[in-house]
Specification:
The chain contains 14 helices and 9 strands. The radius of gyration is 34 Å and the shape is elongated. It starts with 18 loop residues before the first strand and ends with a helix.
Length: 407
């Protein structure tokens, strides 16, 4: 770009913030270069350019835009530098300038904000946090880690959902996660929450069976499975409907029969809250038939080594499911999974004997009393009534030979 330094070279905007009419004149352009003739600094004669006051033919090749105490940016030609400075001034006049948009650390970058949000979920269960991280990572991959969160709009979220090959329920849960994220972002950074695409879905119904079929399958598991702990885990899943398969699998020795309760820490529950589940006396007696082990050892563990595994290691997370399927195949019962055959079947069978409030309070949601203040702060101790009814419907709890239950 060619400049004529003879025209009004004495006029310059040396102050970092000035006003010219209604236009904010904050900021200035500097250069790290020096005049090749005298070694002096270059002067900015806005908006015509920069040159040495004593040698106007000498011009810099590197430029730094400084915007008050806010951001700064480097350029290799003057045109781009002055356009940047003008743009920042225009955004300031419009009340839209945000210095966070132009800092090197990029605090409003999508990945940076996602990391900060996930840290607020540290008290939630590992499974829950893993799902959140996986869904947010899809946004990072689609939009880029440095994408400014303020620029993410409805169309971006719709593209994210449309490009996700998953069930309607999974897509719905993912969008709910993004809504939760942007709601938090609105409170933290005062950034508007974008409109969210709606995802409709219809939950599939799990097949349930009769209590008698359920017990036939559980007894078949006992017959064919060499590890009695797996049979007991499936048996307990059919009684204690408040406990999900993954939660049952995670139980340790010091979390069973704690004053007659299963005590599930929040880190292992889907809700992220401590859960107390009362045990029936017969199951307490059944648990006591096993040798007592170290408190931190998983109860559902291997009793024999196979391959690279060793006795005492926690069983596979899918062990309950695999043995359930084998037993179903042996009995020619098809289309019923572990969840449907235990929790859903039992809940359906027992629900006609109790109100919805009783089922929710004592069947699936639990609190604590003063005896369990070390585990939970408020609430009431859930009753055993529902589980006693379950045992009655299942034909009572059979007493098994202790020799069969040894490790």
């Amino acid at each position: 770009m060619t400049f004529n330094p003879r025209h009004n070279t004495s006029h310059s905007f040396d102050n970092n913030t000035t006003n010219e009419g209604d236009m904010t004149m904050k900021g200035k352009i500097y250069s790290d270069d020096r005049c090749r003739v005298c070694g002096g600094k270059f002067t900015h004669y806005e908006p015509r350019g920069m040159w040495c006051p004593d040698h106007p033919q000498e011009m810099p090749t590197r430029f730094r835009v400084h915007f008050g105490r806010g951001p700064s940016k480097r350029f290799k030609d003057y045109d781009r530098a002055i356009r940047c400075l003008t743009g920042w001034r225009y955004e300031t006049d419009q009340g839209k300038f945000d210095p966070r948009d132009y800092t090197r650390k990029n605090p409003l970058g999508f990945a940076n904000q996602v990391d900060a949000w996930l840290k607020t979920k540290a008290d939630k269960s590992e499974r829950y946090r893993r799902n959140l991280k996986n869904w947010m990572q899809r946004g990072v991959e689609l939009w880029g880690a440095d994408r400014n969160v303020k620029s993410i709009k409805y169309a971006d979220l719709e593209d994210l959902v449309m490009g996700y090959d998953a069930s309607g329920k999974t897509k719905h849960d993912m969008i709910a996660t993004y809504k939760q994220f942007f709601t938090w972002l609105n409170k933290r950074e005062d950034i508007p929450v974008p409109s969210m695409p709606e995802v409709s879905y219809k939950l599939g119904e799990r097949k349930i069976i009769t209590i008698q079929q359920q017990q036939d399958i559980i007894n078949e598991v006992k017959r064919i499975c060499p590890n009695p702990r797996i049979w007991i885990g499936i048996k307990w899943l059919s009684i204690y409907v408040a406990i999900r398969p993954a939660e049952m699998w995670s139980l340790k020795e010091n979390q069973i029969n704690v004053d007659g309760y299963f005590v599930l820490p929040g880190a292992n529950t889907k809700e992220g809250k401590i859960k107390l589940v009362p045990m029936l006396d017969a199951d307490i007696d059944l648990y006591k038939t096993f040798p007592q082990a170290l408190p931190q050892l998983h109860f559902f563990r291997r009793h024999r080594g196979k391959g690279v595994t060793a006795p005492g290691e926690q069983i596979s997370k899918r062990a309950f499911y695999r043995w359930w399927v084998r037993a179903c195949n042996n009995l020619e019962i098809t289309g019923v999974d572990l969840y449907g055959g235990t929790r859903h079947t039992t809940t359906s069978a027992v629900s006609e004997y109790f109100s919805m409030d009783e089922m929710q309070r004592d069947g699936t949601q639990h609190g604590s009393n003063k005896a369990f203040q070390r585990y939970c702060r408020t609430g009431s101790v859930p009753k055993r009534t529902i589980y006693e009814k379950v045992a009655e419907l299942q034909g009572g709890v059979t007493r098994f030979d202790k020799t069969v239950l040894r490790d």
